[in-house]
Specification:
With 249 residues, the protein is of the alpha+beta class. Helix content is 41%, strand content 14%. Strand 2 and strand 3 form a beta hairpin. Helix 4 runs antiparallel to helix 5. The chain is globular.
Length: 249
């Protein structure tokens, strides 16, 4: 049996994360420095390799490329991943790449066109932070979910960290998994996620039900993914909510 390295993961990111991330086990935030203890942070941690591509290369060679009748945007992304993505066991690189991806996707300039006046620049910051951490989750090609951290359960994790009520937590989840993605934004998302070696997929439907999302490789079995997710989610969601701070506390 392969032994998985559970050495602490440390990343110094361009943005200081909210220190309330320290409410969750196995994660310590100190300004721009985030440290994760995999043995404490993850519910399941079976793989310490991820597929990534250089973000600067994505920006220069993919973001501005237009799809054609011969090559849809998904094919463009897949071809780019095949040509430029590499496997890495450097989780710090994964987090740094993810931060760049989500700083791009959840940038403030989109606020004026969302049609969601409840969503503010502060909410986009929450999305950037949570989505960056979610990049350490992983799905294998056979659909097996090999890595699961608390941010898989997006509304639960954000309610614990940011003191959101259930309504706002659900709305933020909608923004994360596509409720504000018109076709232009969907195309933008597909291209940007090539830096993380795949596409953003979700287990939930249009209404958030804590089934979460992950950047999965193209070709991964979504049937096996769905079945694996259904088997574990209820118990682990409860564990995340157990760290919620009462408003009266």
């Amino acid at each position: 049996m392969t032994t998985i390295d559970t050495t602490a993961i440390t990343a110094v990111l361009p943005e200081s994360f909210d220190e309330r991330w320290n409410r969750l086990p196995g994660i310590h935030v100190d300004g721009r420095r985030t440290t994760i203890n995999p043995a404490e942070y993850f519910f399941r941690f079976e793989s310490n390799t991820w597929l990534v591509a250089d973000w600067e290369l994505v920006k220069s060679q993919l973001l501005e490329v237009e799809e054609t009748t011969e090559s849809a945007v998904e094919q463009l992304a897949l071809d780019f991943i095949r040509a430029h993505a590499t496997s890495t066991s450097d989780a710090t690189r994964v987090l740094s790449t993810a931060y760049a991806v989500y700083a791009y996707l959840f940038r403030d300039e989109h606020l004026g066109t969302l049609g969601l006046p409840q969503i503010t620049a502060e909410h986009l910051r929450m999305l950037r932070e949570a989505a960056t951490l979610m990049a350490l989750n992983k799905v294998e090609l056979n659909g097996h979910i090999s890595n699961v951290g608390p941010c898989w359960f997006f509304p639960a994790a954000t309610s614990v960290v940011f003191d959101l009520d259930d309504e706002m937590g659900g709305l933020l989840d909608e923004v994360y998994h596509g409720g504000w993605f018109n076709e232009h934004r969907r195309i933008e998302s597909i291209k940007a996620h090539a830096a993380l070696g795949g596409r953003l997929v979700h287990g939930c439907q249009s209404v958030p039900d804590q089934t979460g999302g992950v950047v999965a490789p193209y070709g991964a079995s979504m049937t096996a993914f769905r079945d694996d997710l259904a088997a574990f989610k209820a118990g682990w969601i409860k564990q995340v909510y157990a760290h919620r701070v009462s408003p009266a506390a």
